[in-house]
Write a structure and sequence with these properties.
51% helix, 12 helices, single chain, Rossmann fold, ProC C-terminal domain-like fold, eight-stranded mixed β-sheet
């Protein structure tokens, strides 16, 4: 059944646009019930035309009567934006934040008393309906709120429920995760080119290989360890590559890199405190 409450995407950008497309295509929320808010007046008409929803620069008017609000504002602007428009948000509205490094408690302090907040860490594959979103409830949010948000983000991929104190590592694993894979694709492609392959050919080989490997983990039910062992013949080419990775500390490098991402997420939360 489609949701019929007035829905506002405050700070509608690429992620907000992806959500709107997912909701409309899955018939989860009718386009007539969605309003996008952009600060850049020059992009209002274009965004509205692309998404087939009403888009405005007038947040005050858009927020009146809204029961579901997606907070897509950049983390460093949340205080200022909610300081200006928070008074127009109903205490009965559900506020869903996709801002990294800003806790539900920090947002709750900027909203009317009693207003529930749910925090989500999505990632960019949501643009292709292949996203991964982690959902954490604030103190005022009820199980029904979490269930609704899980459904909203499942419209553009997959969604899971987590504890808020896990969000820094969620950010390190899935929020920032696509960039690690892009970087590896970049490195593998460059290595192929240095080895004599045409760049377009190398990129095609690497891209399909990464896509296929991910599907095997996702669809076979086998662990990455099992799949790695299956493709690694003793004394063969794959073994030679993996031995070199071990020698260079590949796993340790990945762990340290992800720890740095989690630490930065925690630091951003303190900065936004």
């Amino acid at each position: 059944m489609a949701l019929q409450q007035k829905t506002v995407v405050l700070g509608i950008g690429k992620m907000g646009g992806a959500l709107v497309k997912g909701w409309i295509s899955s018939k989860l929320i009718p386009a007539s019930k969605i309003i996008g808010v952009r600060s850049d007046a020059s992009k209002v008409k274009q965004t509205g035309s692309q998404l087939k929803i009403k888009v405005t620069t007038n947040a005050d008017s858009a927020l009146k009567g809204a029961r579901l609000i997606i907070l897509g504002v950049k983390p460093q602007k949340i205080k200022d934006v909610l300081g200006q428009v928070g008074g127009f948000i109903s205490k009965n509205a559900l506020v869903v934040s996709i801002a990294a490094g800003v806790s539900t408690e920090q947002i709750e302090k900027l909203l009317p008393q009693g207003c529930p907040v749910v925090r989500v860490m999505p990632n960019t594959p949501s643009l292709l309906n292949a996203g991964m979103a982690a959902v954490a409830a604030g103190k005022r949010a009820k199980p029904a709120h979490v269930k609704l948000v899980l459904k909203l983000f499942a419209a553009v991929g997959k969604s899971i429920s987590v504890l808020e104190d896990q969000m820094d590592w969620v950010t390190a694993v899935s929020g920032s995760g696509p960039a690690y894979i892009f970087h590896m694709i970049e490195a593998m492609t460059e290595a192929g080119v240095k080895g004599g392959l045409d760049e377009k050919m190398a990129l095609a080989l690497v891209t399909q290989t990464v896509y296929g490997a991910a599907r095997m983990v996702h669809e076979t039910g086998k662990s990455p360890v099992e799949l790695r062992i299956q493709v690694t013949s003793p004394g063969g080419t794959t073994q030679a590559a993996l031995d070199k990775m071990t020698e260079l500390g590949f796993k340790e490098m990945v762990e340290k890199a992800m720890s740095a991402a989690a630490q930065r997420s925690a630091e951003l939360q303190k900065l936004n405190g």
